[in-house]
C-alpha cells in the first residue's frame, strides 16, 4: 500500500501546503482583505453553503463582522457599498463577466452567457426588440389570459384539496406565461397549470439553475464531469429547451410573440441565428419564469402575513378599477403608487441572491480605495445590500411606504439589484414588472385569500433557500374563493 511518504504523494502534499501558505501570505495580491481564513484558502466553504442554499445569509453575516470589503474566496472579494455597485455594475466601465458564465453544454451563443461587452451589445439589441413598448403592449392580454387560468385552478384545487400551495402553483403559472408570451404556447403542452406540471419542468429548471450556482464555485469539476458518459441527463433541462426551440421553429407563431421579434428583423436589423435559439430558449424559460415564480410567492407571503397592506392595496385597486372584469389598458397600473411600492418592496426582500460575479480587467481597478489586480473576481451580493440598514432602515420590515414620497411611487429611493445593473442588467425587467402588476391586480379583483390553518410565518421564512434559484422548503398553503364584494 502506498504511503504518504512515497514521492508523488509527498510532492502533492508539499504543493498543497505551499498553495495554502501563498493564499494567506503577504505575497498574495488580496492579502489584507479581511475574511475567514478557510474562505481565503479554498472555495470549499462557499461550496458547502451554496449546497445548503444559505450562502446569501452567510455572506451577509460575514460582512457584518468583517466590513464592507470581504474576501470570500482565494481570488474573490465581496462588497457592500453603493460606490462598489456603480464601479462593478453600473458605470460605463462596468466590469465583464467571469468564466462562471461558461458553464453550459448546450450549443450556441446566448445573451446570459456572453461575457464580453463588445459581443453582448449586438445580441442585446436583438433582445431589446422583444421588450419594446410595442411588444409589451401586445403581451398584456396573453399574460392576463394565463392569470385567468390561474384564478380557475386556485379555486378548483382549493375545492378539491381544501387548500392550495402557492409555492407549487405560482411557478407553474410563471412558466405558462413565458410559454404563451414568447413561444406562442409551443414550448410545452398542455400548460403546467392544466397538467399540474406532470413532467416536473419547474423542478428540472430549478435544479439546472442550482447546478449553475454550484459549478460557478467549482468550475474545474464541471469541465471534468461534462465529458463523462450520461452527464447530459444531469442537464436534462437543456435538452428540454432545445426541443422547445425546435417546436417553435417548426410550428411558427399565429401572433407576434417574443421570439418572432428576434427572427424577423425589419430592414437592416440583425436577426437571431436559428442555431442560437436553443440556448436563448433556456435563458427565456428560466430567466422569464423562475424570477416571477419566486417573487410572486414572496409577494403573497408578505401580503397575507401583513394584512394592513393587503387591505390598503384592495382599496387602491377598487378605487381605480371598480369592475372586477377589468380588461382595459394595463398601462394605468404604472400609476398606482401602493401597487408598485409593494412590488418594489417584495423585490427588495424577495431576492436572497449572492453577488453576480465580475472580472477585474488587466491593469486592475480601485474600489473603495483598495486596488485589485486583473483577474480578481468581485461582486456585490443583492441580499446583503437589500438588508443593509444604511440604505434601508429596519431592513427586515416589509414596509412599502419606504418607496412612496408625496403620494407617488419613487423607485429612486433605493437601489435594487434583483435585475442587476449596467450593460449586463436584465433585459426583461420591464416585462417582469408588467407580469407582476397584472398578476396581483387580477388575483385581488377576482379572489379572496386566507392562509390555511396552522401556517407558521417564521418556519416558512426559515425554509427559504437559494442556489441561484430560490426554493422554499415549507409550503405556503392558502384557501382561494371567488371574491365577495
From TrEMBL:
Say which domain of life the source belongs to.
Eukaryota
Checking SUPFAM superfamilies in the record gives: Cytochrome P450
- Report the transmembrane regions from the record: 7-25
Output one GO MF annotation. Answer: iron ion binding
Q: Which residues form a coiled coil?
A: none
Tell me which residues bind heme.
426
**Cofactor(s) the record lists:** heme
Under Pfam families, the record lists:
p450 (PF00067)
Which pathway does this polypeptide act in? Secondary metabolite biosynthesis
InterPro entries the UniProt entry points to: Cyt_P450, Cyt_P450_E_grp-IV, Cyt_P450_sf, Cytochrome_P450_monoxygenase
Q: Which UniProt keywords apply?
A: Heme, Iron, Membrane, Metal-binding, Monooxygenase, Oxidoreductase, Transmembrane, Transmembrane helix
Similarity comment text for this entry: Belongs to the cytochrome P450 family.
> What is the official name of this protein in its record?
Cytochrome P450
- Organism source for this protein? Gymnopus androsaceus JB14
